[in-house]
Amino acid sequence: MQSCLTTLLFLMSIKLASLSLSSSGPIQLGLTGSIGMGKSTITKQFRKLGFNVFDADAMVHKLYSNGGEVIMNRDLRLKSYIES
């Protein structure tokens, strides 16, 4: 499994390098897959290669964590409802 991921990363990095040379702007990729497909592994490798990565799962966890924006907004709405 690891050798397949390494090969995939190598091929993708070559393709991305060739695209970035001919592109006028940043390249955006979406990485999707089922549980256990290696998305996190690929993401870590992209980071190691110096790519900017936006991790939607991490953002959702942050928003829904204790003190996160979603929870804070919920608490504010609940407080104003209780006080009215």
Care to describe what's here?
The longest helix is centred in the N-terminal third of the chain and has 21 residues, at 2-22. The protein has helices spanning 2-22, 39-48, 56-64, 69-83. The model has no long low-confidence stretch (mean pLDDT 76). By secondary structure, the chain is an all-alpha fold. 0% of the residues are buried. It folds into 2 domains: 1-52; 54-84.
- Average per-residue pLDDT, rounded, comes to 76
Low-confidence stretches: none
Biggest sheet statistics? none
- Give the percentage of residues in beta strands: under 5%
Gyration radius, to the nearest Å? 19 Å
Structure, briefly:
With 84 residues, the chain is mainly α. The chain contains four helices and no strands.
List keywords for this structure.
84 residues; mainly alpha; 0% strand
Topology:
Layout: H1 2-22, H2 39-48, H3 56-64, H4 69-83
